[in-house]
Design a protein that fits this description.
By secondary structure, the protein is of the alpha/beta class. It folds into two domains: 141 residues, 3-Layer(aba) Sandwich (Rossmann fold), CATH 3.40.50.2300; 145 residues, 3-Layer(aba) Sandwich (Rossmann fold). Helix content is 44%, strand content 19%. The strands form two sheets. The protein has a seven-stranded mixed beta sheet, sandwiched between helices. A five-stranded parallel beta sheet has the order 2-1-3-4-5, sandwiched between helices. Helix 2 runs parallel beside helix 11 and helix 3 crosses helix 4. The longest helix is centred in the N-terminal third of the chain and has 23 residues.
Length: 328
């Protein structure tokens, strides 16, 4: 063999593994996003859009080097499981779990596909992870609230509406998160002399009947806890609170932006952005078991002065001064 031919072959042998490595790293990845809300919900459309934006900023463009598949179950548990099975059938590299029981349903179906949750309340208590610092399995992510936040809702409700002595706690029927939130609110209610009533809601209906039945008592108010059903039915709940003149505190700002009185909770857009950061790290080789679960570092207080005026409430100046946003 002549020297020139030998050098050419040698160069080709060296270049081939590099080309193969580059091609492997440029292969199309697959990311599933499992949402338990409706596809036409503008709030959750914004959350998914924020997730996609950070993915692009991290170098992952849908249709070029990643395929992002989104499923919306609309709060239907049977459909949620079907959507989860469908996403897993697409052989994703990682799945993002949105509101409600999404993480639990996914872990019933797989303990190997990486899961990044964005809005869980108690992942250790639910059995999704071993610990916040060391998740230990196939799931990690970000929690939207700790149970202790539930007591703060009652304190803030009494601060903006001191006359309230009877409180309905709106929660998803049968949800373990609702049970945990109820327990904390109960612990705060007793020393305050506040009577609590559970109001269980579901996507199958009964929300209007349950809220209207509760509204018959005097000095009543509502706490709308972290709930996928309440998120889906927020327009109805806000309208009923206004109709029955019930001072109501909600878990997130989008309730107040839609006409609710007051909210205290985490920044959901921020959680979905952070979730995209974890998806990026997993796609680049890190494992969920090694990524610590993170809790919010800040909660937002939002007040709607127009709603307060309609309810005849005089919002204390001290509460207004603490607000992150005041809607006129």
């Amino acid at each position: 063999m002549r020297r020139r031919e030998f050098v050419t072959l040698l160069g080709g042998a060296t270049a081939w593994p590099l080309a193969a490595w580059a091609q492997q790293n440029e292969r199309m990845r697959r990311v599933g996003v499992l949402m338990n809300t409706t596809a036409d919900d503008v709030v959750n459309q914004a959350n998914v859009a924020a997730f996609r934006q950070v993915m692009v900023q991290s170098g992952w463009t849908d249709g070029r080097n990643v395929k992002i598949d989104v499923r919306w179950s609309g709060g239907d548990v049977a459909r949620l499981r079907k959507d989860a099975e469908e996403l897993l059938g697409l052989r994703p590299d990682v799945i993002v779990a949105g509101f409600g029981p999404t993480t639990g349903v996914l872990q019933q179906l797989t303990r190997t596909v990486p899961i990044v949750f964005t809005t869980v309340v108690d992942p250790v208590g639910a059995g999704f992870i071993d610990s916040m610092a060391r998740p230990g399995g196939n799931a990690t992510g970000f929690i939207q609230a700790e149970y202790t936040l539930s007591g703060k809702w009652l304190e803030l409700l009494r601060e903006i509406a001191p006359q309230v002595s009877r409180v309905g706690v709106v929660r998803t029927a049968g949800g373990i998160v609702g049970i945990g939130q109820w327990a904390v609110i109960s612990a705060f209610a007793s020393p305050m002399g506040v009577e609590l009533r559970p109001i269980n809601v579901s996507v199958t209906g009964e929300t209007e009947r349950a809220l209207s039945a509760f509204a018959g008592g005097p000095n009543s108010g509502l706490i709308v806890t972290v709930s996928d059903v309440a998120t889906i039915q927020r327009e109805l709940i806000i309208a009923l609170a206004a109709r029955h003149r019930l001072p109501t505190i909600y878990s997130h700002r989008f309730f107040v932006q839609a006409g609710g009185l007051i909210s205290y909770g985490s920044d959901l857009l921020g959680l979905f952005r952070q979730g995209a950061g974890y998806v990026d790290r997993i796609l680049r080789g890190e494992k969920p078991a090694d990524l610590p679960v993170q809790a919010p570092t800040k909660y937002e207080l939002v007040i709607n002065l127009s709603t307060a005026k309609a309810l005849g409430l005089d919002v204390p100046a001290t509460l207004l001064a603490r607000a992150d946003e005041v809607i006129e």
